[in-house]
Amino acid sequence: MKKQGISQEALKLIACVTMFIDHVGATLVLEWYRHAGTGTSAWTLYQIYVLMRIIGRIAFPIYCFLLAEGAHYTRNPKQYALRLAIGAVLSELPFDLAFWGGWTWAHQSVMLTMLLGFLALEAMAKCDNKLLKVIVMLPFALLAEWMQTDYGGAGVLLIALFGLTRELPHRWLLQLAGMTAIIYFLIPSWFHIGQVRFPLEMFALVALIPIALYCGRKTTSSKAVQWGFYLFYPVHLTVLYLISQFCG
Fold first, then answer.
1. How far are the Cα atoms of 4, 185, 221, 229, 232 from residue 235, in angstroms, in the given order?
2. How much of the chain exceeds pLDDT 90, in percent?
3. How far apart are CA 149 and CA 143, in angstroms?
4. What is the C-alpha to C-alpha distance for residues 176 and 39, in angstroms, rounded to an integer?
5. I need a surface site. Which of 3, 51, 56, 142 has the fewest CB within 10 A?
């Protein structure tokens, strides 16, 4: 009997779609807003931009959860790390072009955050004591922060959170509390709609709903599908950059 719930591929698809919406907002819509001047059109674009960024908050926690699941089940950690490293190399230039307009060493893509998070999980897996797991994870979080990766040390902490809680009872409550603390203290990001001020990143907590519905089932073992999800990040950033250049 098949397990009921969201499959791994469906969860990845949710992450890809919400990330794409977020990045369209953060690149194209933001540029259109900046050039719209003032008036109704600018206000409409800003509202669209904020809505797309809100939707996009769902993506990263799902990727962190799936990485923790992958690290737990993989039979070949070296190959898994190599795939992440290849993804990080392929993503760096598209990330810089899409978000910073050209090559820069000041910021690194989220793929490097994911690689550091995976290495942290591997180090944690070698420790039996929970406190020791946290201690060995911290250097990877500090390295992500020092390298200015997307989401930085907070991203590594979120990956570690899913790794630490995956087999605990009431893990969804622990993940909710942990995510709330990480977002509130380490990822401050506030948006304004008129007189209303709200923490944008807190919408990431919505991601716990599809995560809770995840059934652990894979619908395909296709390597093409697997690599397709890996390559989606650099490919869609490249496309967004080319569109921005075409539109001037």
1. 32, 32, 22, 10, 5
2. 75
3. 9
4. 39
5. 3
Count CA atoms within 13 Å of residue 5 on its CB side. 14
* 120 neighbors 154 (Cβ within 8 angstroms): no
CA angle 89, 90, 91 (to 5 degrees): 90
> Dihedral of CA 70/71/75/80: which sign?
positive
What are the pLDDT digits (tens) for 115-167? 999 999 999 999 988 899 999 999 999 999 999 999 999 999 999 999 999 98
User: What is the C-alpha to C-alpha distance for residues 71 and 79, in angstroms, rounded to an integer?
Assistant: 11
**Tokens found for residue 90:** 């392929």
pLDDT band at 1 (very low <50, low <70, confident <90, very high): very low
Dihedral of CA 65/56/87/178: which sign?
A: negative
- Amino acid at site 231: L
pTM above 0.90, yes or no: yes
Q: For residues 81 and 114, what is the distance between their CA atoms, to the nearest angstrom?
A: 9
